[in-house]
Prior knowledge:
Binding site for ATP: 69
CATH architecture of the largest domain: Orthogonal Bundle
CATH superfamily of the largest domain: Transferase(Phosphotransferase) domain 1
Number of strands: 12
Largest sheet: 6 strands, mixed
Number of domains: 2
Protein name: Receptor-like serine/threonine-protein kinase ALE2
Bound molecules: adenosine-5'-diphosphate, magnesium ion
Strand content: 5-15%
Domain Protein kinase: 41-319
Region (Disordered): 329-352
Shape: globular
CATH class of the largest domain: Mainly Alpha
Order of helices and strands: EHEEEHEEHHEEEEEHEHHHHHH
Number of helices: 11
Amino acid sequence: MRDVKKRPRPVDAVPAAGSLPHPTSTRFLAYEELKAATNNFEPASILGEGGFGKVFKGVLSDGTAVAIKRLTSGGQQGDKEFLVEVEMLSRLHHRNLVKLVGYYSNRDSSQNLLCYELVPNGSLEAWLHGPLGVNCPLDWDARMKIALDAARGLAYLHEDSQPCVIHRDFKASNILLENNFHAKVADFGLAKQAPEGRVNYLSTRVMGTFGYVAPEYAMTGHLLVKSDVYSYGVVLLELLTGRKPVDMSQPSGQENLVTWARPILRDKDRLEELVDPRLGGNYPNEDFVRVCTIAAACVAPEASQRPTMGEVVQSLKMVQRVTEYQDSVLTSSTNRPNLRQSSTTFESDGTSSIFSSGPYSGLSVFDNDTISRTAVFSEDLHEGR
Ligand SMILES: Nc1ncnc2c1ncn2[C@@H]1O[C@H](COP(=O)(O)OP(=O)(O)O)[C@@H](O)[C@H]1O
Ligand SMILES: [Mg+2]
């Protein structure tokens, strides 16, 4: 790689990217601007380092706080892939996805940088397993809010973006938090579009992170939308148990979170063994059981038995609505309307199963029939996920 300092670029440089079209909605940023934003990529501004390069904290000249990811060179092929990725990323917009502000690419120096909005409150990984949650661990409500936000981000990639996008590296360190614990999914830039909208995708190199990778992807390289669902299930287990996906300091047999949790998840009388002690016993027991059921379904060994992310969003929303409803019954003297007013026409069949297919379809996770069914699904019809 050539030293970019010897190749100064004017501030309004055009990208040297051959004939590839450049994304219009995402700004091409001058290298000088990114350099100035990060004080020449000074070590003090490093937020962290992942498998694809370092991430720097910075402020653009217009005052936007950003995180700048400097990708390790992938050669000329990598440059081409990079621009294809940027083109794809710039079309994805959702309140639970980290926004791509701009990018820089120079084929001559093989420099590729991505500039994201800064999400200031750390990653879920840092809160669960790192320094952030040490004094004040995430409480149950924050965990459930994060679980739902992250599920919505993934569901958008899978079901609402055209064509469908598989994340491929969904994990706790790719869930970033705002100060109010609103969660955003990051690093879908490493995702590949499913060709022609197909949900099957044979990848040439198996990517992803140890402990999160679905068995079919690890063994055959077959990447499915449902491989993301598996990774999501691992994150849900982390939220429930407070354990890392792989932790060699655990007793023998407990090192791998999914392997340890699976038999316990199958036995309703043992579920308490899973509870994160840092919750201090402050969690609604019924909801814990419900979320365990969702997690168990997501990490099913057979991809076809896992729910879709849309189904996960619906079931997590039901968990939270049931809690809200029960709260409202307890505080009914105040006459506070807890459930969102709505006149949705969604037709629930009234069964309490959360998943329409697979082995979990018969599970009675939601047995509180008193909840107003008209309110349960109303949000989806209006929120424009
Ligand atoms: N947009 C962002 N805002 C704030 N922090 C970020 C942002 N993107 C990445 N980070 C932080 O930078 C670190 C490195 O990120 P990354 O290179 O994606 O590696 P990984 O996700 O494998 O940890 C992570 O700890 C993450 O918290
Ligand atoms: Mg990341």
